[in-house]
Design a protein that fits this description.
The complex is a heterodimer of chains A (about 375) and B (about 600).
Chain A: H1 2-15, H2 22-25, H3 29-49, H4 58-77, H5 80-104, E1 106-108, E2 111-117, E3 120-122, H6 124-141, H7 150-168, H8 173-177, H9 179-190, H10 194-215, H11 218-228, H12 239-250, H13 262-265, H14 277-309, H15 314-338, H16 356-374
Antiparallel strand pairs in A: 1-2, 2-3
Helix pairs in contact in A: 3-4, 3-14, 4-16, 5-6, 5-7, 6-7, 6-9, 6-15, 6-16, 7-9, 9-15, 12-14, 14-15, 15-16
Chain B: H1 7-38, H2 40-48, E1 51-57, E2 64-65, E3 71-83, H3 91-102, H4 106-114, E4 125-131, H5 133-141, E5 149-159, H6 166-169, E6 172-174, H7 177-182, E7 192-194, H8 197-201, H9 203-207, E8 211-217, E9 223-230, E10 238-239, H10 244-254, E11 259-264, E12 271-277, H11 283-286, H12 291-299, H13 308-311, H14 321-331, E13 340-342, E14 345-348, E15 351-354, E16 362-364, H15 366-372, H16 375-396, H17 418-425, H18 431-438, H19 448-460, E17 463-464, E18 479-480, H20 485-500, E19 517-523, E20 544-551, E21 558-564, H21 570-573, H22 575-585, H23 587-591
Parallel strand pairs in B: 2-10
Antiparallel strand pairs in B: 1-8, 2-3, 3-4, 3-5, 6-7, 8-9, 11-12, 11-21, 13-16, 14-15, 17-18, 19-20, 20-21
Helix pairs in contact in B: 10-22, 14-16, 15-20, 16-18
Classes of the chains: A mainly alpha (about 375), B alpha+beta (about 600).
Chain lengths: ~375, ~600
């Protein structure tokens, strides 16, 4: 109780004498502003990254951001209890679309991940992460125990495992892997014993090892080998990571200036408007730019964790933790991947990378977080 | 929900998660610090000097041959001059040098470079294309003094027969933004893709797959190391069904006229010749057109870029009487011996309808009505059949629907009926229109290619073939129309008479030693109230001339449809052209006695 009372008193003392502003004061402006600034930086970087591409992706991404802001407000205005009530429906619809995509999906870069609806292409696996989070929150919030039993852990793992498996079948391993931090984060909060968590990690490592040798396709294994021996083959498969490191490193302190990155503008850098957009930013804005953006991500995560801590109920806490785990993992993985700390797989950077479904998912997720915060006093 | 008890536990765990995040973020930050600050100078050098480049290896595009293995399209090298402004100390001096080698005014090159003002200085400027070999070599030997220039070799398409095969083969153009986004990474900027004709339809087969090589270049752009990774897969070569001799003959016969010729094999739909006049030289598109050349093409009143054989549709005129006769016999509304009296015009539904022949044909039966192309006979047949049944038979002959030819942009034509009239014109069908449609006038529209397919149904005894140009392609099997083969055999006999009996309108196509069968057609461009010969009118008001034919009549192997826009009468303007084609294609067989049964 102590831990939730202090932030509340700070906010209420501010809003008591400005009743009309009460609702505005309930919004976590740190999160909201960091999202807007990040999206703005993202638009500028997408424009620079696509200046030598056939298409300037700026207008499209701008459209996604605009749509994202609208969806953020929509998600914000819906009570998250309604969302958890709907979660089974959303989850089932998501599973259907993931199965559908395996048969009628559009293939991009070797993975059948896209559903075409008229002129639009959507990636159901992105939205599925939100639905999975909500269903997990609904399931786990109903368990009123200090520690989860093995059956409950298995059930939770099943909820996350089904869409994960379907995404891996596309095959989009990066996308599938992103279900893991959601599950781990939420299990940890819901009350799994630490030794159980360690056991789960050990099992997944051994399963992962088996997958690596028997379940991966050649190019995927190649990427991991490349990651393990980055400098051995600079002309071959290590090309991408090497170009990325040269781009980042040559940015030095202050960068080469907007639209002036030789690595980016000379087309050395592959996937530069999507998964490797952070390399473009690092080259053109230097370490200062990198630090600023990582700082904004940290601001988002720290504030979102505070939202979780002061949330009204277990469901709210679990939802926000699921979202934060997902968000933080994307940031860490992508920024680490760009400088060769982690194997390359299709993990985009929230609010910076070009991509419709992913951008919308992040805006909706942010709306849900702000919505949980708004309703922290509401009696229900 | 009793959650309060465990809230302290939740808080501890959430803080643990946050702690892990902060720690990992710190690791990432240190990573960036190491690369950007500690080793920044090293990577800066790498970016500046030792550049790795991934260069595409262009896959050679597939060649195209005619049915006898004669080359129609090949690839020839072409040299392009590029300028890297970041390597030039004195742009003015560089351009002066280039102007002196290319013998072009320096101001022209200045203008080219000025277009790149906004781009980064290391973006190569495309200074000139299609350099002569000597010019390219000149830049090669002076590369030490002028390292800023680079000569790039590309391959251009050479269409050996230029305008003669233009509408069949098409041409290439730079990939559009639309194709780039829809291509899903298949194309990169600047790629050439088929824009028309075979080049467009079979682009995926012809283009092959580009390869990649990774090279290390130093700061002066010199190649230090080359390591080929992925070889290009050359495009597939295509053999067409086209017969170059026949195509050239058709082109020669149509020279100076406006219209089109389609020749195909009625047994399988293989197109042997497809000509649309006026034509254009596709080799112009291989290099960038200058404004005058574009204007000349775009402003030409006859639209040379349009493939008249399938992109324009016209009234079929009297050729449509083939459909009418088949419908009449099949439905039993006329017998072969039923006669009609033609005195030059007849009144139906209160309107006066004229036969093309002033004074009329007297008593005519189906045989003489087809032979003399008597309009009055078919007016009465049309009245008996009614528009619904006429439309039904027209569709059985493949009219009103695209033929499925392997060229893009095909028109479907139009088979009108009352339902169409309500839907598209928002008015009801006039009975008088039925009478016009009966002789192939009024709202009905067909393309010359559809006409060829229609005649092929008569020729092959009732099958709709899919006209096509590429032998290797997967072509649908001919589809049975369900028409009675005996009626079609009877019709072949009648159409033989049109050409070979005294007084037949197709007499101009008669050829000794070969049984040609056919039907003439003259479609009116403006309604005429009197029996004026349209050749006395202004060009754009003159009638269109049709001749649709096949041979040998007993076992047809070739269908020829000739259409001459504003050519006047089909009997005079179109039939002789068809005759010339039969002479070219089937006569040699006769001489070598291959055609025993003919």
């Amino acid at each position: 109780m102590r831990s939730i009372s202090s932030p509340i008193s700070a906010v209420t003392s501010f809003s008591e004498d400005r009743a009309s502003l009460r609702h505005l004061s309930l919004i976590d402006w740190g999160i909201f502003l960091s999202v807007l600034i990040l999206a703005g930086i993202g638009l500028a970087t997408v424009h620079s990254a696509s200046s030598e591409l056939a298409v300037d992706y700026l207008p499209r991404q701008a459209l996604w951001v605009a749509l994202g802001v609208v969806l953020l407000l929509v998600a914000f205005s819906i009570d998250y209890h309604v969302l958890t009530e709907l979660s089974l429906l959303l989850y089932s619809a998501g599973i259907v679309s993931l199965v559908l995509v395996l048969f009628v999906g559009t293939t991009v870069n070797g993975a059948r991940s896209w559903l075409g609806i008229g002129h639009w292409r959507l990636q159901p696996s992105e939205f599925m992460k939100l639905a999975t989070m909500l269903l997990l929150a609904r399931y786990l919030s109903g368990i009123n125990q200090r520690h989860l039993g093995p059956r409950q852990i298995a059930a939770a793992a099943g909820i996350a495992g089904l869409p994960m498996m379907l995404t891996a079948l596309q095959p989009d391993l990066g996308g599938a892997a992103m279900f893991a931090p959601i599950l781990c984060g939420m299990l940890l909060i819901a009350g799994v014993r630490l030794r159980t968590l360690v056991a789960i990690v050990l099992v997944s490592v051994s399963v992962g090892g088996a997958l690596f040798f028997f379940g991966l396709r050649d190019y995927q294994r190649q990427r991991i080998f490349t990651f393990l021996s980055q400098e051995s083959d600079p002309l071959g498969a290590g090309y991408q990571i090497r170009q990325s490191k040269i781009a980042v490193g040559s940015g030095e302190w202050r960068g080469k200036g907007y639209m002036q990155g030789t690595q980016s503008q000379l087309r050395f850098l592959p996937e530069r408007h999507t998964d490797f957009i952070f390399a473009v930013l690092a080259e053109e804005w230097g370490f200062l730019g990198v630090a600023t953006v990582l700082g904004l991500y940290a601001l988002y995560v720290v504030n979102a964790v505070r939202v979780a801590l002061r949330a009204r109920d277990r469901a709210g806490i679990l939802i926000v933790v699921g979202i934060v785990s997902f968000f933080a993992f994307h940031v860490l993985y992508n920024s680490g991947m760009v400088i060769g700390l982690l194997p390359i797989t299709g993990v985009p950077l929230p609010f910076l990378s070009y991509g419709g479904s992913f951008t919308l998912t992040n805006f909706i997720a942010t709306g849900i977080v702000l919505g949980v915060d708004l309703r922290r006093y509401v009696n229900r | 929900m009793n959650v309060r008890e465990y809230r302290d536990e939740l808080v501890v765990r959430a803080r643990l998660l946050l702690g892990v995040f902060v720690a990992l973020l710190a690791v990432v930050c240190i990573g960036y610090w190491r690369i950007q600050i500690v080793h920044g100078a090293y990577f800066h050098d790498l970016a500046e000097n030792n550049r790795l480049r991934r260069l595409p290896i262009k896959a050679p595009r597939g060649l195209i041959y005619d049915r006898n293995g004669r080359l129609l399209v090949e690839n020839i090298p072409s040299y392009t001059l590029l300028l890297d402004r970041s390597r030039s100390r004195d742009i003015e001096g560089s351009l002066g040098f280039a102007a002196s080698v290319l013998k072009r005014p320096e101001t022209q090159l200045d203008a080219v470079v000025a277009r790149y003002r906004g781009a980064a200085s290391f973006t190569p400027v495309l200074v000139a294309e299609n350099l002569a070999l000597a010019e390219a070599a000149h830049f090669g030997v002076t590369s030490l003094e002028h390292p800023e220039f680079e000569v790039d070799v590309r391959h251009l398409r050479l269409y050996r027969h230029g305008a003669q095969t233009a509408h069949v083969l098409g041409y290439l153009g730079e990939v559009s933004e639309n194709d780039l986004t829809r291509g899903g990474g298949r194309y990169i900027v600047g790629d050439l893709v088929g824009k028309k004709g075979i080049e467009q339809t079979y682009d995926q087969l012809l283009r092959g797959r580009d390869g990649n090589r990774v090279v290390v270049v130093d700061s002066r752009g010199r190649l230090l190391e080359e390591d080929e990774r992925e070889p290009a897969v050359p495009g597939q070569s295509l053999t067409l069904t086209l017969d170059l001799d026949l195509q050239q003959e058709a082109e020669r016969m149509m020279d100076g006229k406006v219209g089109s010729v389609v020749a195909l094999d009625p047994r399988n739909g293989e197109i042997l010749a497809l000509v649309s006049e006026p034509s254009f030289d596709p080799n112009l598109f291989a290099r960038r057109l200058d404004q005058d050349e574009w204007d000349a093409l775009l402003n030409n009143e006859h639209h040379p870029l349009q493939n008249r054989a399938l992109q324009n549709s016209y009234a079929p005129g009297s050729v449509f009487k083939i459909v009418m006769a088949t419908a009449g016999l099949t439905e039993g509304v006329v017998g072969s011996d039923d006669t009609v009296y033609c005195d030059g015009s007849t009144a139906i539904y209160g309107n006066q309808f004229r036969c093309w022949k002033r004074g009329g044909h007297g008593w005519v039966n189906l045989h003489s009505a087809l032979k003399y192309s008597c309009d009055v006979y078919f007016y009465h047949l049309g009245q008996k059949l009614g528009i619904e049944r006429i439309a039904q038979y027209a569709r059985m002959f493949g009219l009103g629907d695209s033929t499925g030819v392997d060229l893009r942009g095909e028109k479907a034509g139009l088979v009108p009926d009352p339902e169409w009239s309500r839907r598209e014109r928002h008015q009801s069908w006039y009975p008088g229109e039925t009478i016009s449609v009966a002789i192939g006038q009024g709202p009905i529209l067909v393309t010359p290619l559809q006409m060829a397919r229609m005649v092929a149904v008569v020729a092959n005894g009732g099958y709709l073939v899919t006209p096509h140009l590429v032998r290797e392609a997967a072509i649908p099997q001919p589809v049975a129309t369900g028409l009675d083969p005996r009626i079609l055999a009877n019709l072949r006999q009648q159409l033989w008479s049109v050409v070979n009996e005294e007084g037949g309108t197709g007499a101009a196509a008669r050829l000794d030693g070969l049984d040609i069968a056919g039907k003439t057609g003259t479609s009116q461009v403006i309604a005429q109230k009197t029996w004026t010969d349209s050749s006395s009118l202004a060009y754009e008001h003159r009638d269109h001339a049709w001749f649709a034919s096949f041979a040998p009549a007993a076992a047809p192997r070739l269908v020829v449809v000739v259409f001459v826009e504003h050519g006047g009468k089909g009997s005079a303007a179109a039939a002789p052209i068809a005759k010339a084609l039969y002479e070219k294609y089937l006569q040699p067989d006769l001489r070598s006695n291959v055609l025993l049964g003919g």
